[in-house]
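Hi V.,

Quick status before I head out on leave. The structure for the redesign project is tokenized and pasted below; the design run finished overnight.
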């Protein structure tokens, strides 16, 4: 059973909630951090890397200066302005190159080749809870985050099968872009974390439109619900209209910030306050996924 924790915007407490749920299910869950652009679940779970592997996706053009005849065709025709000419030496700007391959086909001297791009790294780690965490890091300025997320999810599914784990708990990316779409693909349940602000409501509506297109069972946690009770009611009404389960309303609490600062989960910061609450949340979610 795959459970994905997502949010329409950053700063809602999504990762803090995902990490606390991980504590509730540590002995029966493989974890996956699919926020590959800005992964931070490892800051709380302190994983020990067991295996590291480079991730390649897409190609970039590279010019061999020895074979180049300086005909200038590639620079003239590149629609991305990725090819530069300095002192009759031609080079490709890897950040501007889209890997379309047109220059490769065009070059009369066959001086341009297409090389596979390393866009990130994928890790298989053991957390301080003793379970497996599959996570990744996307290179700065790299594309194909959706493909890297797909790799993380595939590795997590294989790990869950080999370890006979009942659940896969995924910390997804905020927003509605490619990493989120890839995170939701193949999942069974999506837990949306939102907050009672106008932007929180707006982004909740956007992420609902995306998640509902996958036909998933949906639940929602309203975090910091006491900061704006009127908007919290509007969000609750929206959830009811759309058939989304209101799993829990959490009040604003400085423990969220303190936990992140100390690299701990809420359950570790104050077990008496948070352990039973997150156990209840986890029980509600798993009941809906049966």
């Amino acid at each position: 059973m795959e459970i994905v924790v997502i949010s329409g915007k950053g700063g809602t407490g999504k990762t803090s909630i995902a990490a606390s749920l991980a504590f509730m299910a540590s002995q029966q869950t493989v974890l996956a951090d699919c926020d590959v652009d800005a992964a931070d679940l490892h800051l709380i779970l302190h994983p020990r890397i067991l295996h590291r592997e480079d991730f390649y996706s897409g190609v970039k053009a590279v010019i061999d200066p020895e074979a180049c005849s300086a005909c200038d065709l590639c620079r003239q025709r590149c629609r991305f302005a990725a090819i530069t000419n300095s002192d009759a030496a031609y080079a490709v700007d890897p950040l501007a190159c889209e890997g379309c391959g047109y220059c490769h086909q065009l070059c009369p001297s066959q001086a341009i080749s297409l090389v596979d791009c390393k866009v990130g790294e994928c890790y298989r780690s053991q957390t301080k809870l003793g379970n497996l965490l599959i996570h990744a890091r996307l290179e700065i300025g790299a594309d194909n985050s959706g493909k890297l997320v797909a790799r993380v999810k595939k590795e997590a599914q294989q790990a869950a099968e080999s370890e006979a784990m009942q659940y896969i708990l995924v910390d997804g990316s905020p927003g509605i872009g490619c990493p989120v779409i890839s995170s939701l693909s193949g999942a069974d349940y999506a837990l949306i974390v939102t907050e009672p602000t106008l932007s929180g409501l707006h982004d909740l509506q956007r992420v609902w439109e995306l998640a509902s297109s996958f036909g998933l069972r949906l639940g929602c946690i309203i975090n910091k619900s006491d900061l704006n009770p009127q908007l919290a009611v509007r969000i609750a009404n929206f959830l009811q209209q759309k058939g989304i389960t209101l799993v829990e309303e959490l009040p604003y609490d400085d423990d969220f910030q303190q936990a992140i600062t100390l690299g701990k989960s809420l359950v570790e910061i104050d077990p008496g306050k948070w352990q039973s609450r997150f156990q209840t949340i986890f029980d509600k979610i798993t009941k809906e996924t049966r």
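Above is the designed sequence. The radius of gyration is 23 Å.

G. will cover questions while I'm gone.

Best,
W.
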